[in-house]
TrEMBL record:
Annotated ranges, domain Solute-binding protein family 3/N-terminal: 40-262
Alphabetical list of InterPro entries matching this protein: Bact_solute-bind_prot3 (IPR051455), Solute-binding_3/MltF_N (IPR001638)
Gene Ontology CC: one annotated term: extracellular region
Coiled-coil region: none
RNA-binding in keyword set: no
PANTHER family the record matches: ABC TRANSPORTER GLUTAMINE-BINDING PROTEIN GLNH (PTHR30085:SF6), AMINO ACID ABC TRANSPORTER PERMEASE (PTHR30085)
Lineage: superkingdom: Bacteria
Protein name: Amino acid ABC transporter, PAAT family, periplasmic amino acid-binding protein
Provenance organism: Pseudomonas fluorescens (strain Q2-87)
Extent of the signal sequence: 1-28
Keywords: Signal, Transport
GO biological process: amino acid transport
Family: Belongs to the bacterial solute-binding protein 3 family.
Lineage of origin: Bacteria, Pseudomonadati, Pseudomonadota, Gammaproteobacteria, Pseudomonadales
């Protein structure tokens, strides 16, 4: 009797342990289930300026390239889209803490970021950095920034090459707007941020005394959607959506419509996927 009880108890423990393990595995990749259950996806986006993202001063509506990408994801999944404004220093925390489901937040791929987050393998664009500099500063190449103060956002992937390759003195700010304010106040000789935003600024009257004199963007890198570690079902679903965007040419159209001039890398991806089978849902 005792032996039977022990075996039966041990079996129960094993079954319970297996159930716990199975539940843990399911929970490790539960984001897609949660999105479907609440019929909405929460997307962290950068609203630091055109063309990536802005806030309509009258309605408070989120606008711009990042926002349209987020809406495209929601439409392809058949759910509502909720965009959440994030900043460079807190965007990873927002994702890791579950405040957003995914990030479309001007985070280009780096090996360091991939160590703590997962990402959608197929990029949706390629973006590098551009240096906004006051006219007449005499800076004509990246090497001219050696020993000079350069303003960037905290957590920027441009910090490493600016320091290690070009010897710049980094001044990192919580937001892009703070970085640009320091540039206007002569707190630095250059502000380095994503190239499309820097080009957009030149069309504004307040930046008429500045220019983008360096001929090449800094470390052009893949723009990808970021997820929490282990979310492989969400990753696969989103990757199929991004590949279909390339197939249909929607990303090219979106770039032209929002002022995000399509890169050659984006055009190459369209050619790569244009003959693929389409998804059932299009943005």
């Amino acid at each position: 009797m005792t032996a039977f009880f022990s075996v039966r108890t041990l079996a129960s423990w094993c079954l319970a342990g297996a159930a716990v393990c199975a539940a843990s595995l399911a929970q490790a990749d539960a984001t897609l289930d949660k999105i479907e259950q609440r019929h909405a996806i929460s997307v962290g986006v950068m609203l630091s300026g055109s063309p990536f993202g802005t806030i309509d001063p009258k309605s408070g509506e989120h606008l711009g390239y990042n926002v349209e990408l987020a809406k495209g994801i929601g439409q392809a999944l058949g759910v509502e889209t909720q965009t959440v404004s994030v900043l460079a220093p807190n965007r990873v925390q927002f994702l890791q803490q579950g405040k957003v489901d995914i990030l479309i937040a001007n985070m280009q791929f780096t090996e360091e970021r991939a160590e703590i987050l997962d990402y959608v393998p197929t990029p949706y664009e390629e973006v590098g950095g551009a240096a906004l500099i006051r006219k007449g500063a005499g800076i004509t190449q990246w090497a001219d920034l050696k020993g000079k103060p350069v303003c960037v956002s905290q957590g920027s992937n441009f910090i490493k090459p600016l320091q290690e390759t070009y010897g710049a003195q980094i001044k990192a700010f919580r937001s892009q707007s703070e970085s640009l304010l320091s540039l206007r106040g002569n707190g630095c000789v250059a502000a380095v941020h994503v190239s499309p935003t820097m080009h957009a600024l030149l069309s504004e009257a307040e930046w008429q005394d500045f220019e983008l004199p360096l001929p090449e963007d800094l470390i052009p890198s893949n723009s990808v959607i970021w997820l929490r570690k282990g979310e492989h079902d969400t990753q696969a679903k989103l990757d199929a959506i991004v590949r279909d965007w390339h197939r249909s040419g929607w990303l090219l159209e979106l770039g032209e419509r929002t002022g995000m001039a399509p890169s050659q890398a984006l055009r190459d991806l369209h050619e790569q996927y244009r003959n693929a089978a389409p998804l059932a849902v299009q943005p």
